[in-house]
Amino acid sequence: MTPTMDQMRAHRSIRKFTDRTVDDDTVQAIVSAAQGAATSHFVQAYTVIQVKDQEKRTAIAQLSGPQAWVEQAPVFLVFCADLSRLETACDMQAGAMEKGWAEQFVTATVDVALLAQNVLLAAESLGMGGVFIGGIRNDPQTVCDLLAIPDQAYPVFGMCLGWPAHDPPPKPRLPVEAVLFTDRYPETHDRQMLSDYDRIINHYYLHRNSNLRDETWTRQMADFMGRIIRPHMKAFLEKRGLFLK
């Protein structure tokens, strides 16, 4: 193990923050470091918007859940998968960009996810903490309207950052043997391994330092995957000019 690997394994979601501010230079340094992330074909198909306006923060916090930490965190970022800049690049070269293809959508979404994970890891390396806010996709059109996000771009998730005011334990992940295989996909998923993991997660939920509950991973996933979530996303993406073909 290395200090970087230890940092990665120690990740936990932070939703309570101290009053200590985070200056703009620190935010810029974090994002600049995060830009070292891999990017398909060097497209760098992402844009990050730091939301400082309190009215906009309040609106996003409400549509996201509500999630009060969106209002309270020293830093709130919105990460956009963004092909708009690439359209400008094509125009500068007197070319026309092909639009609406699924591969472009996947490329931009992967690019921004890689960047965002690097942002959080860089912040954590400084002693900060944060949490991803997928809830902005509850009403992505309002987020676009609030932040003037153009067509050929969409908000994928938000992120709260700041100095932790609580110390939750890391949530145990699946054993590596459940996700790492050699040469081919497994014929079946190991049910005994998942049952053992259920007991680990149940113990975690029953003994963590807040929000105690009697829950297992497979029960949680069966509930989550048994519901239709954000059915508006397909129509929203098509309206943005994305994922049309």
TrEMBL record:
- SUPFAM superfamilies in UniProt: FMN-dependent nitroreductase-like (SSF55469)
Keyword annotations of the record: Flavoprotein, FMN, NADP, Oxidoreductase
GO MF terms on file? oxidoreductase activity
User: Which residue intervals define the domain Nitroreductase in the entry?
Assistant: 9-163
Give the similarity note. Answer: Belongs to the flavin oxidoreductase frp family.
NCBIfam families listed in its UniProt record: PRK10765.1 (NF008033)
Q: What is this protein called?
A: NADPH-dependent oxidoreductase
Which organism is this entry from? Answer: Desulfosarcina ovata subsp. ovata
From which lineage does this chain's organism come? Bacteria, Pseudomonadati, Thermodesulfobacteriota, Desulfobacteria, Desulfobacterales
